């Protein structure tokens, strides 16, 4: 190793760090000035943030990977935004949950995250304006929809202003690093289902599987009782200082959860958006086909079509539809008009940038 060469590079890094420091603070000053111009109005602008991150990824010459530079800029924007006004975000807790990870992935670490005991409570805190935004899980690639979030969307006045997509890795966690003597495994019902095959193969049949409100809650319980294990993610393992007995035990390697971000604002258009709506349909032949017609006729691509029993009438259904594009664009506006002529209930849940990170 040449000491001279090493020093040369380190001196160069020292100089670059000074430049980065100055540039970061210049950027922060501009954000602060923008905050003054907004004058107490809406500070968080998801459309602008998506544009900044997409542009950085597109311009990135490497050798840093695009995903990495986007994550760094995510944190820079998070700090700049906090200078304008710190954001408070309600999420499905407790601390260490996947929803908290999703929240930090989307808003960065300068946001104040508030753990809530239920999805209902998280929505309530934002609806009553005690907190600014809510992050809630909406679907998992193996387990399907999160029913409670969908049900709350029917009546909430909040608008979707973003989505977060998170790869889910489950680990078997315990206070002591040994597989022997486990009597119970705690996990959220969805995590138990997602690791079903692994549990059958690797744990004796007498080990009880107990579903609890969240994976982080499972980790908390396992931290209190050495006879128990928990299925949870990395954040919960760290939060409760648990040993990892087995890593990535999910049966489906591409296990992914999608979360929604909701607040009180409408979001402007970007080059890649989604629009989410709910429509109702009576339980009669051809009703669903009739709903899909205006979408097809206007060349609108659907990314999701999910049905839930409506609370209003026996065997009536509501449909959750996600479409590519912003509802202010011509084809979606026309499709929505067509839908409105065919059903008594159409609710636009929001238009928002497709997940960038
Ligand atoms: O452009 C803005 O409106 C800003 O406030 C600046 C900024 C940024 O740091 O780039 C910060 C927060 C917003 O959510 C979007 C972007």
Automatic annotation (TrEMBL):
Keywords: Amino-acid biosynthesis, Aromatic amino acid biosynthesis, Cytoplasm, Isomerase, Lyase, Multifunctional enzyme, Phenylalanine biosynthesis. Its main location: cytoplasm. It comes from the Bacteria. Residues 1-88 form the Chorismate mutase domain. InterPro entries: ACT-like_dom_sf, ACT_dom, Chor_mutase/pphenate_deHydtase, Chorismate_II_sf, CM_dom_sf, CM_II_prokaryot, G/b/e-P-prot_chorismate_mutase, Preph_deHydtase. The keyword Lyase applies. Pathway: Amino-acid biosynthesis; L-phenylalanine biosynthesis; phenylpyruvate from prephenate: step 1/1; Metabolic intermediate biosynthesis; prephenate biosynthesis; prephenate from chorismate: step 1/1. Its EC number is 4.2.1.51, 5.4.99.5. Coiled coil: none annotated. Residues 88-264 form the Prephenate dehydratase domain. It catalyses: chorismate = prephenate; prephenate + H(+) = 3-phenylpyruvate + CO2 + H2O. Catalyzes the Claisen rearrangement of chorismate to prephenate and the decarboxylation/dehydration of prephenate to phenylpyruvate. This is Bifunctional chorismate mutase/prephenate dehydratase. It comes from Vogesella aquatica.
């Amino acid at each position: 190793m040449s000491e001279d060469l090493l020093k040369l590079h380190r001196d160069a890094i020292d100089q670059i760090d000074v430049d980065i420091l100055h540039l970061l603070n210049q950027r922060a000053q501009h954000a602060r000035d923008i905050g003054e111009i907004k004058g107490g109005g809406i500070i968080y602008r998801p459309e602008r943030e998506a544009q900044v991150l997409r542009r950085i990824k597109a311009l990135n010459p490497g050798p840093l990977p695009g995903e990495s530079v986007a994550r760094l800029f995510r944190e820079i924007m998070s700090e700049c935004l906090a200078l304008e006004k710190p954001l408070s975000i309600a999420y499905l807790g407790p601390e260490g949950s996947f929803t908290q990870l999703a929240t930090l992935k989307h808003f960065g670490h300068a946001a104040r995250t508030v753990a809530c005991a239920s999805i209902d409570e998280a929505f309530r805190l934002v609806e009553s304006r005690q907190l600014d935004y809510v992050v809630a899980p909406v679907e998992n690639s193996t387990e399907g929809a999160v029913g409670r979030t969908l049900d709350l969307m029917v009546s909430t006045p909040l608008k979707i202003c973003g989505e977060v997509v998170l790869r889910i890795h489950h680990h078997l966690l315990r206070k002591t690093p040994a597989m022997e003597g486990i009597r119970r495994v705690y996990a959220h019902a969805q995590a138990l289902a997602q690791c079903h095959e692994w549990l059958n193969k690797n744990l004796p049949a007498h080990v009880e599987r107990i579903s609890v409100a969240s994976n982080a809650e499972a980790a908390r319980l396992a931290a209190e009782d050495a006879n128990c294990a928990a299925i949870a993610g990395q954040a919960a393992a760290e939060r409760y200082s648990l040993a990892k007995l087995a890593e990535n035990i999910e049966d489906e390697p591409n296990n992914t959860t999608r979360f929604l971000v909701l607040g009180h604002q409408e979001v402007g258009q970007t080059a890649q958006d989604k629009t989410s709506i709910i429509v109702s349909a009576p339980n009669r032949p051809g009703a669903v086909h009739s709903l899909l017609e205006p979408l097809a006729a206007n060349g609108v691509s659907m990314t999701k079509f999910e049905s839930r029993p409506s609370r209003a009438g026996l065997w009536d259904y509501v449909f959750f539809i996600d479409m590519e594009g912003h509802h202010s664009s011509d084809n979606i506006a026309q499709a929505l008009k067509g839908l409105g002529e065919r059903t008594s209930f159409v609710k636009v849940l929001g238009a928002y940038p497709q997940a960038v990170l």
